[in-house]
Amino acid sequence: MKALLGMTSAIILTLGLAFGAAAATPETRDDGVTVIHLDEYNGYFAAEETIAGLKTGEYEFVVTNRSDKLVGFQIQNLANRNTLDKFPLEPGQTRSSRVTITEAGVRYRCPINPTPWYELDGIKAR
Question: Which has the closest alpha carbon to 86: 61, 67, 111, 119?
Fold first, then answer.
């Protein structure tokens, strides 16, 4: 019984650590640019900051290639599909993309190692 209680406590602690870690709020620098860090893996992106509930303004996407092959980053205006920026990333490389996000929203993906589009819509005016 004691072993079962210990195992149950370990499972609860593990679940608490896994689900209790909330994503950080994006930082807005003194120059008014909000920074979002994206890690690109083989076939998907992971954001360090919460990307829900963004407001209009200037953003810098700091993208790091966490895979072992060449990948890319493409960001577009969600409404008209105009490409705002697009570049390749070598393994381990980090590059930044500064864009203006309007109420139309944006979407991003990897055009080299195709990933689904990540759509950021519902952008609120400041």
Answer: 111
